[in-house]
Design goal:
The protein is mainly β. It contains no helices and six strands. It has a domain at about 10-60.
Length: about 70
């Protein structure tokens, strides 16, 4: 069983999305798919006992990531 790296607690919630507070969508990493650009959302693992984010990750790693911001 996984434990919190901060408090040692075992009440972890996995696969939570990191959403924007006043916009539609998620924070994440851009990727290209054909002629379109998508965003692979960040996900977190959160300790319910102390509120620490133990892990920040993406679920699908097999993407054609956009490495440079064209702006």
């Amino acid at each position: 069983m996984n434990k919190c790296k901060h408090c040692g607690g075992d009440k972890l919630i996995k696969d939570l999305h990191v959403k924007r507070s006043n916009e539609i969508g998620f924070y994440g990493i851009p990727y290209t798919k054909s002629i379109f650009v998508g965003t692979e959302p960040f996900r977190i693992e959160l300790c319910q006992e102390c509120g620490t984010i133990n892990r920040l990750y993406v679920k699908d790693m097999n993407r054609n990531w956009v490495k440079d911001d064209p702006k």
